[in-house]
Amino acid sequence: xxxxxxxxxxxxxxxxxxxxxxxxxxxxxxxxxxxxxxxxxxxxxxxxxxxxxxxxxxxxxxxxxxxxxxxxxxxxxxxxxxxxxxxxxxxxxxxxxxxxxxxxxxxxxxxxxxxxxxxxxxxxxxxxxxxxxxxxxxxxxxxxxxxxxxxxxxxxxxxxxxxxxxxxxxxxxxxxxxxxxxxxxxxxxxxxxxxxxxxxxxxxxxxxxxxxxxxxxxxxxxxxxxxxxxxxxxxxxxxxxxxxxxxxxxxxxxxxxxxxxxxxxxxxxxxxxxxxxxxxxxxxxxxxxxxxxxxx
Length: 296
What we know:
Elements (H helix, E strand, L loop, with lengths): L6 H13 L4 H17 L9 H13 L4 H21 L25 H9 L6 H16 L3 H5 L6 E2 L4 E5 L5 E5 L2 H18 L20 H14 L10 H12 L4 H8 L4 H4 L1 H17 L4
Antiparallel strand pairs: 1-2, 2-3
């Protein structure tokens, strides 16, 4: 059944798109969550009471929906009602005092430095696609870019002479991230030999990285390539699209980087989001201690 989409929800999504610069994936998640709530409400979302919203969340809980899903639904509702009250000052926010269920913060699986080295050696540098993949992997590990940031990275935001890349992240927030020597070398090789072979003659493509048919790469294509290269490298860990980003942050902290610097490099708005990587590093140190200490 198609979920109901009201004018209020459409207006909210348009507002977020044009005023807050949220990604298509984020907007789709908000819309999906709000339409699911609207489907079961007896009134329009803009007219819902606190009791009706609580009833919806309780039904999800009793239906054994996990806490993370419930928290996401409430987060979408809170954002919608902040927007609605901004547009309608006399309106009341029915979720202002509602709290999300406590979540157990999951610690991401992080591949080791040896596994990263194996992954970076996996591309075939004798082919244009291999040179491209090598440049992408080196860039992601050197800078901690999200997959979506890599595929949307404009050609002109790369400054190899300065060793920097300008990134437009979530909410259209910009940050400048330094590149290491290995990443610069791989990118120079890609721009000199591989990209000209992939881009059709006489065609201009704004994106830095292009597909085998000379178009902007998609997130799905990039992730498929990384999974394939991980198999070639013999990495049997269940990688996620953020695996190199997780490795970038964790390995920096393991080598002494401070949390605030890592936060700026990752483009996290909240330091608490970055703090999960200290837990990863601590877990790693504890494991090493247990393995190698005589009384571990």
